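Minutes, project check-in
Item: structure for the 175-residue chain
Input as provided by the requester:
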Amino acid sequence: MKFEFVAIFLVLMLLSSCSQSIEYDNIQNKDGLYFDKSTGKFLDGKFESVTLRPYSRETVIKQEFKNGLPTGEWEEWNGDELIHHGEYIQENDLAIRIKKMTNSKRVNLNLWKEADFAMLSIELVQPAHADSSTLEKVAIVTEKEFKDKYVFSTIIFDSINNSTTERRIFEYEIR
């Protein structure tokens, strides 16, 4: 009986750590929620997406989702070279402040690196206020809140409306 329990536990651990494979072209983003175009279902669990590009090595993106929302750590590889890696961080107090300042439906915070450059992406889902003045205020609040907790030199704002994303970049010298 004890052996059966251990065997079942090990199988469940193995299954939970496995990544599901999905073609990059089948990943659809609508209002900041990700789903599989071929099934219409929200992405849920760990996924690995492989893209073959002409004149390039394959690009592999490894990411986890929960009910269509990106969560946890992620990586993007080009062949055997790690290009980007990061983590969707849970900072609920700051996310609520940003949500109120921009009147967004939801806010995702993504702390990531490209080589030695650390960046914070603030993903604003359906923001009512994403003008330069508002984003500058959000950047100042974010810098004050995070400067002792996280290392980054750039804040990137992604405004997500339906299936389109508008990107604005603010460069900061973090003191």
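Outcome recorded: The two ends are 59 Å apart (CA to CA).
No further action items on this chain.
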